[in-house]
Specification:
CATH architecture: 2-Layer Sandwich
Number of strands: 4
Strand content: 15-25%
Order of helices and strands: EHEEHEH
Distance between the termini: 17 Å
Shape: globular
Radius of gyration: 12 Å
Number of helices: 3
Helix content: 25-40%
CATH class: Alpha Beta
Structural class: alpha+beta
Bound molecules: iron/sulfur cluster
């Protein structure tokens, strides 16, 4: 399962990512991105998700494989 990871410290809140991936990334009252709980990047979203990671000016976004993240910890 692919997910978006957000580094809230690095993020500057301009919201480019939320415009590209509104199904996953919302915005709070100050314009900062908020990830939907339990979100998953579907095949149809993958191109836009990669684009969001690429255009993020603060390198605050990444795509992670959740199954790998869990197996690394166990
Ligand atoms: S594009 Fe990057 S810096 Fe801009 S709001 Fe999204 S995560 Fe934050």
């Amino acid at each position: 399962m692919l997910r978006v990871r957000l580094d809230p410290i690095a993020c500057d809140g301009y919201g480019y990512c939320a415009e590209l991936l509104p199904e996953i990334i919302g915005r709070d009252d100050w314009g900062y991105p908020v990830l939907e709980v339990g979100h998953e990047i579907t095949a149809e979203m993958l191109f836009r998700a990669r684009r969001a990671v690429k255009i993020c000016p603060r390198v605050a976004l990444s795509i992670i494989e959740l199954d790998q993240a869990v197996s690394v910890r166990s």
